[in-house]
Amino acid sequence: MRYRTLGSTGVQVSTLSLGAMMFGRWGNPDHDASIGVIRTALDAGVNLIDTADVYSDGESEVIVGKAIAGRRDDVVLATKVSSPMGPGRNERGASRRWIIRACEESLRRLGTDHIDLYQVHRPDPATDIDETLGALTDLVRAGKIRYAGSSTFTPSAVVEAQWTAERRGRERFVCEQPPYSLLVRGVEADVLPTCETYRMGVLAWSPLAGGWLTGRWRRDAAQASSHRTRTMPFGHTLAHYDLSVPANQAKLDAATALAGIADEAGLTLIQLALAFVTTHPAVTAAIIGPRTAEHLHDQLQAADVVLASDVLDRIDQVVAPGTDVNPHDASYGAAVLADPRRRRRAA
Q1: Are 319 and 185 in contact (CB under 8 A)?
Q2: 60, 215, 292, 327: least CB-packed within 10 angstroms?
Q3: Which entry of 55, 147, 180, 332 is annotated as an active-site residue?
Q4: Would you say 52 and 70 are in contact if contact means Cβ atoms under 8 Å apart?
Q5: pLDDT score of 151
């Protein structure tokens, strides 16, 4: 396992970090099996575990807490806040009121007295960023979190947060979590350079593109599952594997071509995909999200893979740098475009 410094914090984290979204009813409801996967990852040298309060409505945090009991000092523990956690109007978002409460509840579920990295899961357009950073600063000073981070923030939101922290004397976001994979390269154009400018770490989520880069999705095996849909964790459903969607056909074509490149390089597609993400100089770690021990084993095989320049050149011929094969996979957009009223006003 290789390790890199998380931004400018001085904290060393494994280049393959463990995402816990699939532990609990969203993925693997067997707590003992999930705990086994987590502990196997730790034994293999993984030292950053990334979860979120919303994953299986808190169940993931409970499982992670059980798994790291007795090993807390060996783990860089990360979780997130802002996604809806109940029916109440204020049980979500990035207000001081919710962040303080949500942090206490995450600490309880995780069975710990502090969180190493507390991340705002998505931007909250209704809340002033100074309000959010002020609450996170107070949590740092109280010893309940060590660092704050963001997830799926646009470049302009990243910059605004950095400027606000400097002007107002707040704790700044030390890292960003963007979607990044062989099929989702749009962040190369703006998000990753912005993170480099501010010396922020980058924890790339969905490096296997939601399953498209596991090696299972090749044209000769895709038709049987071509109409499978996927329920996403943030309140919307996408026809993630529906091959009647032209952009998904393009993803299948790209995944098939990339699998051929992997074969010729003597690698699995999983190894190619994960090594590609960790090759980018801005990226600190790729967040893997195994559901089973078998998935974990397959993904850990990429830990020490380094891609040759000619392989990277061939990848660029399949998916051009800075592009997303399916634009929906970017998973974020400016608030002015997401809100129809503001979009009309801006026109």
Answers
A1: yes
A2: 327
A3: 55
A4: no
A5: 97
